[in-house]
Amino acid sequence: MGYRCRESAFLMRVAAGVAHEEPGLTLIVEHDGDRRTVLRTSNQPVRNIKATHTPGPARPPTCRKPSGRRIRRTQENTVTSGPPWQGRTISDSPIPRLLTTRPAVVLERIARGGGTTNWYHCADPTQLNAVTARLNPGSVVSFYFDDRIAYSRFTSDLRQQMLDLMDSLRGQPGETGEIVVGRLNADQLRIEVDFPSGPADLDEVTAHLGHHSWIYYGPYPGRDNDGINAVTITLPDHDGVLRPHPH
Q1: Are 127 and 25 members of one domain?
Q2: pLDDT reported for residue 25
Q3: How many CB atoms within 10 Å of residue 19?
Q4: pLDDT attached to residue 21
Q5: Is 90 exposed, middle or buried (0-12, 13-18, 19+ CB in 10 A)?
Q6: Which residues on neighbouring strands pair with residue 141, listed in sequence order?
Q7: Which of 2, 73, 168, 214 matches a 20 to 30 Å C-alpha distance to 187?
């Protein structure tokens, strides 16, 4: 039984005693600013008394234990964002919120890696910790929430679409026609990618695929950061300090 319940039971017993000994008196229960209970008696009519307790049949007060349900729900919905060295770089970005509406393709550009990249699929906020735990200090990481890297079944029609994409890219200054083609790893996180730039390359990459295999494909994406379709962040180094690196 909690403190308030014990206090209520005590006051009811006191009130019953007062009514028995002095029928003309009324027990007044007041609380001062320090949350202390003050008892006094009065022979004034009840209607003029600000707060009164009228004795009646003693009944054990009903007490409820504080429920921890709300606390547990809050803990279950809490999403952290990777190792401590990352700080709040990801959790304070739009990434967790956007993941509640759609999945993302994640591109990690490794700091001082000579162009090395890692690619991931992040389906929703429940996978965010698993992805961020694999990221490297100093990386530039982009989350793409649109279909610039599409996910589709591999068919002869899709093969032709990829060849057409290569041709269209090849006509742009500085482009070689290289595109991204990837398959989701068995861990359901990592995307294994290749970068074909012509029909022979594409056939080599897709030779082991059946006509019902699902693949990722699209032009190599930039470091876009509009906060809606793409979010790009730079991770701090392992000591938590943000430094510029070649990527």
Answers
A1: no
A2: 52
A3: 17
A4: 52
A5: buried
A6: 108, 233
A7: 73
Q: pLDDT tens digits for 166-198?
A: 999 998 998 999 999 999 999 999 999 999 999
CA distance 76 to 123: 18
Number of H helices, E strands in the chain: 6, 10
User: Within a 10 A sphere around the Cβ of 130, how many other Cβ atoms?
Assistant: 14
Q: For all residues of the chain together, what is the average pLDDT?
A: 80
Q: Nearest-CA neighbor of 197 among 240, 167, 172?
A: 167
| Tally of domains within the chain | 2
Low-confidence stretches of the chain (pLDDT beneath 70): 1-81
Spell out the residues 6+ positions from residue 115 whose beta carbon is closer than 8 angstroms to its own. Answer: none
Q: Would you state the structure tokens that stand for residue 124, as one six-digit string?
A: 């929703």
Please measure the distance between the N-terminal and C-terminal CA atoms of the chain and give it in whole angstroms.
63
CB 53 within 8 A of CB 29: yes
Residue 240 lies in a domain: no
What pTM, to 2 d.p., does this model score?
Answer: 0.68
DSSP 242: -
Per-residue CA distances from 157 to 38, 149, 164 (Å): 85, 17, 11
**CA 30, CA 36: separation in Å to the nearest integer?**
8
Dihedral sign, Cα of residue 107, residue 111, residue 117, residue 118: negative
**DSSP codes joined into one string, 33-64:** TTS-EEEEEE-S-GGG-SSB----S--PPP--
Residue-range definition of the domain harbouring residue 91: 78-234
